[in-house]
Amino acid sequence: MTAETGAAGDADMEDGTIEYKNTEYGFSFALPESWKGYQIVDERWEGLAIGGRQGGEVVETGPLVSIRHPQWTSRNQRQDIPIMVFTLTQWDALQREEFHIGAAPVGPKELGRNSEYVFALPARYNFAFPTGYEEVEEILAGDPLQPD
Predict the structure, then answer these.
(1) Kind and range of the H or E element at 133?
(2) What is the pLDDT of residues 72-81, one digit of tens each?
(3) pTM attached to this predicted model
(4) In degrees, to the nearest 5, what angle opens at C-alpha 119 toward C-alphas 116 and 125?
(5) Tens digit of each residue's pLDDT (9 = 90 or more) over 65-111
(6) What is residue 51's DSSP assignment?
(7) I need a surface site. Which of 11, 108, 116, 121 has the fewest CB within 10 A?
(8) Could you tell me if 21 and 28 are in contact, meaning their C-beta atoms sit under 8 angstroms apart?
(9) What is the helix, strand, coil percentage profile of the chain, to 5?
(10) Quick count: other Cβ atoms within 10 Å of Cβ 41?
(11) pLDDT at res. 104
């Protein structure tokens, strides 16, 4: 897991929002001014085989880019905004139920896509209702992810 503080790819927008720009995968994400100074946490998602000889084994992996609120601390954890990154081939395989992610009975929710990747929100990402989950849901309701 690596973390970087939001700044380099940021742009303050005229409407008072902050834009996180991910040039590696080709998307931008609009955040409210209160998220200025956020961190990016890079992790990986794992896809497990369904049935057969490989049942339960990791058969796919990909990036999980989490946007972390600037007030997050190890003692006062807040809801991250997790964005799973799939290749188009991986996303199609997931839709065909060739693998699954996590124990939730539903899969990730597509937030957007470009010519190479699908960006998705993990199922049950906020299952523990951490501090700030309502704010994250409000942000997500505004269609903040824009593919390049």
Answers:
(1) helix 133-141
(2) 999 999 999 9
(3) 0.87
(4) 155
(5) 999 999 999 999 999 999 999 999 999 999 999 999 987 678 899 99
(6) S
(7) 11
(8) yes
(9) 15, 45, 45
(10) 17
(11) 67
pLDDT category at 3 given cuts 50, 70, 90 is very low
Q: How many CA atoms lie within 13 A of 88 on its CB side?
A: 4
Q: What are phi and psi of 144, to 5 degrees?
A: -75, -20
Token pair of 146, please? 């824009």
Whole-number average pLDDT of the chain: 88
As given in the structure block, the two tokens for residue 3 are: 């973390």
Residue 131: DSSP 8-state: B
Q: Is 31 exposed, middle or buried (0-12, 13-18, 19+ CB in 10 A)?
A: buried
Tokens of 53: 């000889």
